[in-house]
Amino acid sequence: MSARFRRCGHGTGPLHPGDHKAVAEFTALLAARKQPAPWTGRGDVAVRIAPNARALERGRPTEGQHPDADPVALVLTHHPDTETALTGTLRCARSRIHGAWIDPYRLLTHALAGRTIDPDLTLEA
Description:
The protein is 18% helix and 18% strand. It is built from two helices and five strands, in the order H-E-E-E-E-E-H. The longest helix has 18 residues, at 17-34. The radius of gyration is 16 Å and the shape is elongated. The two termini are 30 Å apart.
């Protein structure tokens, strides 16, 4: 992730077009974290793996999942851009749901940072 933000901010001259893209992505990420889109019970969801951590993962409710269920039965995907399932079905407390999944959250995933998720992960409470 550090290769993405290669400019230190003290350089001279105008920003490179690649720097503009990185700044725009980071600004969108901050805005999305501050005011997440509410999750309606349908579609992909952004889930906080640890209660107080910054990392978010993309989850998909299982087929036939009731929109108001608590806990929610989710399957986490390995990478935010693929459909590869990372876990089996997990029971996830609604308090762990950050909001609806949107593209700027990609920067906060374990897969994009090159980290793995603990196989004994539990999302209850």
